[in-house]
Amino acid sequence: MKKKMSAMLVLVLTFMLVIAGCGGGTDSKPESQGDQKPAENKETEAVSGASKVEYTPIDQLQDKYDIIIVGAGGAGMTAALEAKEKGMNPVVLEKMPMAGGNTMKSSSGMNASETKFQKEQGITDSNDAFYDESLKGGHDTNDKELLRFFVDNSANSIEWLDSIGIRLNNLTITGGMSEKRTHRPEDGSAVGQYLVNGLVKNVLSKEIPLFVNANVTEITEKDGKVNGVKVLINDKDEKTISADAVIITTGGYGANMDMISKVRPDLEGLVTTNQEGSTGDGISMIEKLGGVTVDMDQIQVHPTVQQEKSYLIGEAVRGEGAILVNNEGTRFVNELDTRDNVTAAINKLPEKAAYLVFDSGVKSRAKAIQKYEEMGFVVQGDSIEALAKEINVPADQLQATLDTYNKAVADKKDAQFGRTTGMEHDLSAGPFYAIKIAPGIHYTMGGVKINTNTEVLNKDGQAIPGLFAAGEVTGGLHGQNRIGGNSVADIIIFGHQAGIKAADFVKGQ
Fold this sequence. Notes:
Blueprint: H1 2-22, E1 45-48, E2 51-54, E3 64-70, H2 74-85, E4 90-93, E5 110-111, H3 116-120, H4 127-137, H5 144-152, H6 154-163, E6 170-172, E7 182-184, H7 191-205, E8 210-211, E9 214-222, E10 225-233, E11 237-248, H8 257-263, H9 281-288, E12 293-294, E13 299-306, E14 311-312, H10 316-319, E15 323-325, H11 339-348, E16 354-359, H12 360-365, H13 368-374, E17 378-381, H14 384-391, H15 395-411, E18 432-444, E19 447-448, E20 455-457, E21 463-469, H16 486-507
Parallel strand pairs: 3-4, 3-11, 4-8, 11-21
Antiparallel strand pairs: 1-2, 5-7, 6-7, 9-10, 10-11, 12-19, 13-14, 13-18, 15-16, 16-18, 17-18, 20-21
């Protein structure tokens, strides 16, 4: 009877979560994440934006599951849902006080090609174009097998999300892409919280146990096969949980400055946009089992980060028409070039910082700006002259810059910097706005080596039996530079595959 009542409570609460949270979005780290107290033998209440989630009570943790998923970001929850669909009994273990990980901070959207939403909106796209542009963005260093699988399964992943109530039908564009293939929530809001809320809702409605404050410290094995994990509950109680397969979806190492400084000492001192749980734990645990890594020195620095709060200003702002200006009030780069190129251009400026400048039209189309405004990042001027005064740049020069840009939009030709995308609208609708930005550590392209079955590989290229991985914990897909919008696609596409292949492995035992 108690179990039935508990299940009913979870269903009611998850329904409330959807009402409260799934319609909006933010790429922020929820304010409660750092100071939430761990629960002790009772339901853990975690805060996600305006929504509250009741995770699985720790006293329901069992000693054995078919599949253990380590990490409750987008990849982990997707894998759990697919494993459950395949008839498995999965569990999700998350070390932080809430689900979401870096997925919660995702802003721009999810890239996919040949999707039904593109077709509905008259956008002609192809998997081959998506492949070629992602390969070019990664400087031709991407793992080509992973990349081919990635693009060819992108549309199916958009369809799958839609089938479980997560609709990404608002399209924009990101740097390095030639078509609108970045899929966002219908209202144009940031994708992160919307996606996390939708996945949590589905995980709980399928009665998949999701434990937080559950820090996996070791992957166990016997006779060369993975057979479970050791987990520290609420920082005090260690338990050993067995399983026939383990999926690692713990994310990257963008918040581990010791790890970063070893491979990229040149990045010391930069702020990071990563949530505090992105410390590379999964990579370290997999290496102890003989798994190998790839591209560990490939760390993406995002060009537009608000420095005081280490807060990512999403690429969708530029995708919807914003420009970048320096302290002289002039443009200096194609704003939708690849992230590494835009970062390099900012770093060449004497001030190593710039302003994103946009109008009320961009603000209406990129809903994440509302959150930036709430956080105090956005400066407003009723006129261009007023905005110039607010950000201390020459008014006549800023006016000339906008006039030149608006003419480029009208002529459909940016003679200055060759920008060809995100130019459907000029910047003429006051009020006008600016956000000061500079580069910050954003994403780690490196990680453990996997194949297209998401099996973790050893130094001989052989799969470690029973061990799978997906998402930012893996390396190779993005090469030397990740295209904006490809990481959300990565976690859904390969999270989906991990759930399928881990279930197949268990069934074959």
